[in-house]
């Protein structure tokens, strides 16, 4: 039987799922999405789900809080059989979850019970995982803890960023969501209770999460750089012209805040006696930085307020010398 579906979503990760459900055999009767936000320059961020819903003539609801009496009443008026949630950004109350006949399911970008929370894609890369996936689960009031209805796995590429991985997982999630909705419709879904003892958290990232600690290993720094693209981005402060052993406050050196976009291990250039953050090589083409137990070659970066560039382009206008270093 065809179900009446309500989509509850905001981010681009949810767009393939929304499209797939609109094109499927079930009936999408409305969209709940976050309120419109104003960014820099007072420009409103484009919400592609809202635009698609309006194109299809669907009602759009944008409550600041989805669990209010008014928002729950709006949902009930749609008489949904099932809510499909993806990157919505709000915890749903038991009262709201009781409105749809079949409750609500969530499209989550990790292999649960690992990485419950707001940043599962970034956390998987940060932790050096080589595999991740998408889990569809029945939503309960406790965060990402409901019974699992389906899992699709995929390897993480050795150079893959969070942004690239999110795009692949979004497509996988759309295919899996359609399959799970069909199973719920015909009564063949087989929920599997999560093992809470295996659970780990993936909390929301902050801008400060991007600061590179050069006391970490080359592998950890590489994972951080890839995990934090496109946001909040890994960064470090280069101190130029200061005392060799000093930091930002020593000598008369100037400091440059650099966003680091691509790195690679350069183990053959490591010097165990050098302090982490020290510049080991800085010629016209390469910049190698000492880390813990190895060295990191920076390949692409972006000076604050400027465009992204290769390290060779950066070194042309910013000659780096012996004694320069990154803050740790």
What topology does this entry show?
Layout (H helix, E strand, L loop, with lengths): L3 E6 L5 H9 L3 E6 L15 H8 L4 E2 L7 H9 L4 E5 L7 H4 L6 E5 L11 H7 L4 E8 L9 E8 L6 H25 L31 H10 L6 E7 L13 E12 L13 E4 L4 E4 L4 E9 L5 E2 H7 L7 E2 L2
Parallel strand pairs: 1-2, 1-4, 2-3, 4-5
Antiparallel strand pairs: 5-6, 6-7, 8-9, 8-14, 9-12, 10-11, 11-12, 12-13
In brief, what are we looking at here?
By secondary structure, the protein is α/β, with parallel strands linked by helices. The protein has 2 domains: 4-198, 3-Layer(aba) Sandwich (Rossmann fold); 207-326, Formyl transferase, C-terminal domain (Methionyl-tRNA Fmet Formyltransferase, Chain A, domain 2, Roll), CATH 3.10.25.10.
Question: Could you walk me through the main structural features you see in this protein, from its secondary elements to its overall organization?
Answer:
- The chain is of the alpha/beta class and 328 residues long.
- It has two domains: 4-198, 3-Layer(aba) Sandwich (Rossmann fold), CATH 3.40.50; 207-326, Methionyl-tRNA Fmet Formyltransferase, Chain A, domain 2 (Roll).
- The chain is 24% helix and 24% strand.
- The chain is built from eight helices and 14 strands.
- It has helices at residues 15-23, 48-55, 69-77, 94-97, 120-126, 162-186, 218-227, 311-317; strands spanning 4-9, 27-32, 60-61, 82-86, 104-108, 131-138, 148-155, 234-240, 254-265, 279-282, 287-290, 295-303, 309-310, 325-326.
- It has a seven-stranded mixed sheet.
- Strand 2 (27-32), helix 2 (48-55) and strand 3 (60-61) form a beta-alpha-beta unit.
- The N and C termini lie far apart (60 Å).
């Amino acid at each position: 039987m065809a179900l009446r579906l309500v989509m509850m979503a905001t981010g681009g990760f949810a767009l393939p799922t929304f499209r797939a459900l609109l094109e499927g055999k079930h009936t999408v009767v409305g969209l709940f999405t976050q309120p419109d936000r104003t960014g820099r320059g007072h420009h409103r961020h484009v919400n592609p789900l809202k635009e698609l819903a309006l194109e299809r003539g669907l009602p759009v609801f944008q409550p600041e809080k989805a669990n209010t009496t008014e928002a729950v009443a709006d949902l009930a008026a749609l008489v949904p059989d099932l809510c499909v949630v993806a990157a919505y950004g709000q915890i749903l109350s038991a009262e709201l979850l009781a409105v749809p006949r079949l409750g609500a399911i969530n499209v989550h970008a990790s292999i649960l019970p690992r990485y419950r929370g707001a940043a599962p894609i970034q956390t998987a890369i940060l932790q050096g995982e080589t595999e991740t996936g998408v889990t569809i689960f029945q939503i309960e009031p406790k965060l990402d803890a409901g019974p699992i209805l389906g899992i699709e796995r995929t390897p993480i590429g050795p150079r893959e960023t969070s942004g690239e991985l999110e795009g692949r997982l979004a497509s996988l999630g759309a295919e899996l969501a359609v399959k799970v909705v069909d199973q719920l419709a015909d009564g063949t879904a087989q929920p599997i209770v999560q093992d809470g003892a295996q659970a780990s958290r993936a909390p929301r990232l902050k801008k400060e999460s991007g600061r590179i600690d050069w006391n970490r290993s080359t592998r950890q720094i590489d994972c951080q750089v890839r995990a934090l693209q496109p946001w909040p981005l890994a960064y470090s402060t280069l101190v130029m012209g200061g005392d060799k052993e000093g930091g930002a406050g020593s000598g008369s050196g100037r400091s440059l805040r650099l966003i680091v976009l691509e790195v690679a291990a350069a183990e053959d250039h490591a010097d165990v006696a050098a302090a982490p953050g020290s510049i080991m090589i800085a010629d016209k083409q390469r910049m190698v930085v000492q880390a813990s137990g190895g060295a990191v070659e920076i390949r692409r970066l972006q000076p604050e307020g400027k465009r992204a560039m290769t390290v060779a382009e950066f070194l042309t206008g910013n000659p780096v010398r012996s004694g320069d270093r990154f803050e740790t």
